[in-house]
Specification:
The chain is of the alpha/beta class. The protein is built from 13 helices and twelve strands.
Length: 407
């Protein structure tokens, strides 16, 4: 039976595809520290459940395809804190940030068109683009430079007649890099020069450290016509399973076109929308506390990871991820080995190989992503296990090489 080229070209999630190895380790009695996936261990704020409990209707019905109006109003109030002058009509509720990114790519690019991405990038961008038969064209950021946003000339080298937009996350998943207002402005000016759209994923907006202040691309009023901002409540409120995101733009033509796609999938989940209204009533104290907790975790991980001999790692400024270059030959092979062949006192650590976060063939082979989503004591233990694992893995490789040389 025939299967489409589309699905055969799609990559499996580099974050989730190694889960069976972790499951097998657990069956053998091994404790696995999961630093591979961005699932926060912090509790979802109680107000989410309180608002759901207040719901008195006996039917869980469809909502407007754009989402509940009250929730969109709450989002408009929330975004105004970050210099974004928005109305409820300029905000669409989506089924998580994933749907928002898919809508954004679909509305600006046809099959065969190109979207420039800053790599390493959120791995599922690859899946969304493959589903739409759109090609991602990478501009590379380097571990040695803290994964800073590349210079404009690097983007210009990749722009062709098929290029329709530039897509990146800020703060970055998977690197934790934070791009400044000056960085964003130069990309917007570059996009205007070449008549491109700019899609900015701001899922980790509040998670910035070391005195940085969160802001939104939507504050750049002179570029509203080409900006699409995508967002999600998954991370900032530990609501990953709630599947509430937003698609935001001041460009009415784009909104009208995206509404066609929104209508075809009917509506976002109604109960999650109701609970999310409650979440958007939380004040700045919540965000300060949560950001401070992740800063502490970042500092612990950076301190421990820096003890690995030969590691390349700059302290990230945001999100809750750290991408690092390790003295290993193959990150996916290493992650599997940590789950199948290595443990310390019946415990091991699982991270994400960074190869799947690149579009460039062969890139990321010696890089991993760490999600610091556990409390600090667990992070210390997990990173120590990772350090010992790197040492042992390289000893095993050396022995294997010696055997091969003598045979």
């Amino acid at each position: 039976m025939f299967l489409s080229n589309r699905v055969q070209r799609m990559q499996a999630s580099p974050i989730r595809k190694l889960i069976p190895y972790a499951d097998q380790a657990k069956k053998r009695g091994i404790k696995v520290y999961h630093l591979n996936i961005g699932q926060p261990d912090i509790e979802t704020p109680p107000v989410f459940f309180e608002y759901i409990k207040k719901y008195s209707n006996k039917i869980i019905s469809y909502t407007n395809s754009a989402g509940l109006y009250e929730l969109r109003e709450k989002f408009a109030e929330y975004y105004s804190k970050y210099g974004a002058e928005l109305s409820a009509e300029e905000i669409m509720i989506t089924v998580g940030g994933s749907e928002a990114v898919t809508f954004a790519i679909a509305v600006v690019a046809d099959p065969g068109d190109e979207i420039i991405v800053v790599e390493p990038f959120y791995a599922n961008y690859n899946g969304f683009a493959s589903l739409l038969n759109v090609n991602l064209v990478p501009v590379v950021s380097k571990a040695e430079k803290g994964y800073a946003l590349p210079e404009n000339k690097e983007f210009e080298l990749k722009i062709t007649s098929r290029t329709k937009g530039i897509l990146f996350s800020n703060p970055s998943n998977p690197t934790g890099a934070v791009y400044s207002k000056q960085d964003i402005l130069r990309i917007l000016e570059l996009a205007r020069k070449y008549d491109l759209y700019v899609i900015v994923d701001e899922v980790y907006r509040e998670f910035v450290f070391d005195g940085l202040k969160p802001f939104s691309v939507m504050e750049f009023k002179d570029h509203w016509d080409r900006i699409i901002m995508v967002d999600s409540l998954s991370k900032r409120f530990s609501l990953c399973g709630g599947r509430i995101g937003t698609f935001v733009t001041k460009n009415k033509e784009i909104l009208d076109m995206v509404m066609k796609m929104a209508q075809s999938r009917l509506s976002p989940p109604m109960i999650s929308q109701i609970g999310s209204i409650g979440l958007l009533t939380l004040d700045e104290r919540y965000f300060k506390e949560i950001s401070e907790e992740y800063r502490k975790r970042r500092d612990v991980v950076f301190e421990e990871i820096s003890k690995i001999e030969g590691v390349v790692c700059k302290k990230p400024k945001g999100a809750f991820y750290m991408s690092v270059k390790l003295p290993i030959d193959n990150s996916e092979k290493f992650v599997k080995w940590m789950l199948t062949d290595f443990n310390v006192n019946n415990s091991t650590t699982m991270v994400a190989p960074l190869t799947g976060f690149y579009a460039t063939e062969g890139a990321g082979n010696d890089e991993i992503r760490i999600a610091y989503v556990l409390e600090t004591d667990s992070l210390k233990r997990a990173c120590n296990i990772l350090r010992l694992g790197v040492q042992e893995y390289n000893k095993v490789r050396e022995k294997e090489s010696e055997v091969q040389e003598t045979t």
